[in-house]
Amino acid sequence: MKKIILLLTVILAMSLTINSKTENTTMIPGNAEIVKCPYCGTEKELMTLISGNTFDAEYWSDNKRIAPMLPHVSPVQKCPNCGKYYFEHKNRHGESKNTSFDCGELTFSEWKEAYKQFLAEGVGGDEMTNIQFWVVQSYNDYFYRNSIISVKPSEEDYQLFSEMVVGFIESFDWKPVKHPLLKAELYREANCMKECKEVLESIPYDDLEDFEKSIFNDIKRRMESNDNIVFKLSV
Question: Residue 55: what pLDDT?
Fold first, then answer.
């Protein structure tokens, strides 16, 4: 599995460019992708797109993009028959003549189950690094991006979240990342304010682009007020 590209500001810059080119492009589904459960052999069909757009997309400080007209298939799928979890990219079996709007998105509870399953199976390296990050994003989805359910995280859930953040930060290769704003942000969300401050102080502020400075200032302001909640970026 390719390592996730997690340069927050680079992705944001690319997204701003894409917005200007794709906001008028219609979302058109393609032939459904067939995936097959490696445990029981059950197949299911997932969405593909011929075209989409980023109109009304939201960008969040944990590197999450939510684009209603450009949805993405979950990288981990849950078998509807046996309930086991598997990597989508490893279990593709051609395409169907049908179309599908199923992306196989997992809930936070399901991501926790998937993490425990993969951990028990000895999954490691880049794959585990990616899983840790997806658990982090799903936690924020459930507790802070969900406009329908208002639930405070339990101590157990927040402890898991913090462990996933620290595990991800320690295992991800940050060397190619010139301005690790995402690293500072994740430390802030895990309530590691000292580490967040150290990362921010290591970033040459004057070298940042204007939109990077805006993100930097937002992270710093929230850190100084001991705010550890993910936030929507102003773009």
Answer: 79
CA-wise closest residue to 92 among 136, 30, 44 = 44
How far apart, in whole angstroms, are the C-alpha atoms of residue 28 and residue 99?
Answer: 10
Integer angstrom CA distances of residue 227 from 78, 170, 215, 234: 34, 22, 15, 18
Report whether 61 contacts 231 (CB < 8 A): yes
Length of the chain: 235
Spatial separation of the C-alpha atoms in residues 20 and 149, rounded to whole Å: 33
126's tokens: 């880049």
Residue-level pLDDT at 22: 46
Query: What's the CA gap between 162 and 191, in Å, rounded?
Result: 8
Q: Rounded distance, CA 6 to CA 233, Å?
A: 16
Burial of 48 (0-12, 13-18, 19+ CB in 10 A): middle
Report yes or no: 230 and 140 within 8 Å, Cβ to Cβ: yes
Query: Is residue 24 very low, low, confident or very high in pLDDT (cuts 50, 70, 90)?
Result: low
Query: What pLDDT is attached to residue 149?
Result: 65
**Is 86 strand, coil or helix?**
strand
Q: Are strands 43-46 and 33-36 parallel, antiparallel or unpaired?
A: antiparallel
pLDDT band at 7 (very low <50, low <70, confident <90, very high): very low
